Amino acid sequence: MRVLVIGSGGREHALCWAIAASPLCDALFCAPGNPGIAEEATCVPVAATDIEGILALARRERVDFVVVGPEAPLVAGLVDRLEAADIRAFGPTEAAAALEGSKGFTKDFCAKYGIPTAAYGRFRDAAEAKAFVRRRGAPIVVKADGLAAGKGVTVATSVAQAEAAIDEAMVAQRFGAAGAEVVVEEFLAGEEASFFALIDGTHALPLATAQDHKRVGDGDTGPNTGGMGAYSPAPCLTPALEREVMDRIILPTIKGMAAEGRPFKGVLYAGLMLTREGPQLIEYNVRFGDPECQALMPRLMSDLLPALLAARDGVLDGFDLRWYPDSSVAIVLAAKGYPDEPVKGTEISGLAEATGGDPAVKIFHAGTKRVDGRLVADGGRVLNVVAWDKELAAARDKAYAVIDRIEWPGGFCRRDIGWRVVPPRQR
């Protein structure tokens, strides 16, 4: 098969790395890709949101199957356009992608179909949103309704902080149209976890478990980010809890979306809060998580490509995936200033030497480019250092040893990824 992956981040690098290993893949392209992805695929400078450009590329290269990585082209209807052109694609339609494209839609959907989630209100008027906050008190959560690259959520510890977040989204318009409406919801206490399942419109195939680290600083401090690191498996998601998540959240969502005339195909990410009352849905993503995907792909023993095809073709029933028992960790190296104003253009070197040729280490590129032959930072989250071993502690230590050998003064990382399972090392 001739396969095209859409995107340019660490998630897409991990997907290209896995797909390139498939005996079914004869040729692999990525649009637009990055310098790391160029080691796995032919990168073509077409933006992930350039739907017409992607269609032209797919036709020109006689692409058999397109795998859409990021959320923006899914919400914009890329899969609909590809399928209309008789090009098979992995990912939800525009109508189904509303599960991520609108937090308000998801909250109303959960209320309609009895899916456990936090109590909430939807607002298009800042004064009404603030009045709701004052009635509910703090802590409380403020979310921009639309896509905000993982930065549109504020967990406010005071009423004043929540009101400032409302102003930031609705008055200052930090997130553009995505913040024209906000969702304000109750604060849920507990442990967060990431649950992924491949969906074919009717059936669900759970993937391995993972846990993300959203806050920028050690000890889960500072603002939310797109994710500073992840590990897999996540011991907090026991087999009993996995069954409960499937029965109470994933399967009702599949049935509800079909009933709404929005059948879901692709990968569904459920961001969960494991509360005393049981698992509750924080949010849905309609694509692989980033950086969870980078932690999951090295653990996948099975061929990824047939699984993605089965989800698209509606034949997941009876399909199975095998996973290595090893633990993996993905640690994000971000540019200084992230998540606010990351400093771009700083040089990165020593990547090949840093890994030492270890076959259980992989550096996925997330926000890099080449300038006059030099590798430089070109985003907020720039590199993902991934390592795997029999025990999480060994994988974690291996990943941090690699990071310490990378020459990049312009970057930083959290030093406590996996802290809920393995205490941070004393440094």
Notable characteristics:
alpha+beta; Rossmann fold; Dna Ligase, domain 1; D-amino Acid Aminotransferase, Chain A, domain 1; five-stranded parallel beta sheet; 28% strand
How would you characterize this protein structure?
The chain is α+β, with helices and mostly antiparallel strands and 427 residues long. The chain folds into four domains: 2-94, Rossmann fold (3-Layer(aba) Sandwich); 125-180, ATP-grasp fold, A domain (Dna Ligase, domain 1); 191-313, D-amino Acid Aminotransferase, Chain A, domain 1, CATH 3.30.470.20; 327-412, Glycinamide Ribonucleotide Synthetase, Chain A, domain 4, CATH 3.90.600. The chain has helices spanning 10-20, 51-60, 71-75, 78-84, 98-101, 103-113, 126-136, 159-170, 239-259, 292-296, 304-313, 351-355, 392-405, and strands at residues 2-7, 27-32, 42-43, 65-68, 88-90, 120-123, 140-144, 153-156, 182-186, 191-200, 204-206, 211-212, 215-217, 221-224, 229-232, 265-275, 278-285, 327-335, 347-348, 361-365, 368-371, 374-377, 381-389, 411-412. The strands form six sheets. Strands 12, 15, 18, 20, 23 and 24 form a six-stranded antiparallel sheet that branches. It has a five-stranded parallel sheet with strand order 3-2-1-4-5, with helices on both faces. β1, α1 (10-20) and β2 form a beta-alpha-beta unit. α7 runs antiparallel to α8 (159-170). The protein is globular and about 55 Å long. It starts with a strand and ends in a 15-residue tail after the last strand. The model has no long low-confidence stretch (mean pLDDT 95).
